[in-house]
């Protein structure tokens, strides 16, 4: 089994995409909760070869909560980047 997860704070990224720069604080507690649910699911149902996956995270999450990124890696998962803010690179000059 191969699986990748986008671990993002959707509301934060959506507001940025709408040019709303005064965003609320990132809800890292929600990100932790969702990560723990996914990790528990993989441990329970992933079997020996499918209990790890790739977590795509943004740089702003890594900056705001490096302990979460460290935990994902320590648990054996792969970390991948969706750039700093998960901007659509096709619309950039």
Notes on the protein architecture:
The N and C termini lie far apart (37 Å). The protein is 44% helix and 12% strand. The relative contact order is 0.21. The mean pLDDT is 82. Strands 1-2-3 form a three-stranded parallel β-sheet. The protein contains four helices and three strands; from the N terminus they run βααβααβ. By secondary structure, the chain is α/β, with parallel strands linked by helices.
Total helical segments: 4
Shape: elongated
**Class by helix and strand content?**
alpha/beta
Terminal Cα separation, in Å?
37 Å
Strand % is 5-15%
What is the count of β-strands?
A: 3
Give the H and E element order.
EHHEHHE
Give the averaged pLDDT, no decimals.
Answer: 82
Please state the CA-atom Rg, rounded to the nearest Å: 14 Å
Major beta-sheet overview: 3 strands, parallel
Q: Strand order of the main beta sheet, please?
A: 1-2-3
Helix content: 40-55%
Low-pLDDT parts are none
Features:
single chain, 93 residues, alpha/beta, three-stranded parallel sheet, 3 strands, 12% strand, elongated
In short:
This protein is an alpha/beta fold.
Task: Note the topology.
Blueprint: E1 4-6, H1 10-17, H2 28-45, E2 54-57, H3 59-64, H4 66-74, E3 78-81
């Amino acid at each position: 089994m191969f699986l990748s997860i986008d671990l993002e704070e959707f509301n934060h990224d959506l507001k940025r995409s709408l040019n709303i720069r005064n965003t609320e604080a990132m809800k890292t507690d929600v990100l932790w909760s969702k990560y723990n649910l996914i990790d528990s699911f993989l441990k329970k149902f992933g079997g020996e070869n499918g209990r790890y996956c790739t977590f795509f995270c943004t740089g702003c999450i890594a900056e705001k909560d490096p302990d979460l990124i460290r935990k994902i890696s320590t648990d054996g998962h792969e970390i991948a980047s969706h750039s700093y803010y998960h901007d659509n690179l096709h619309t950039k000059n």
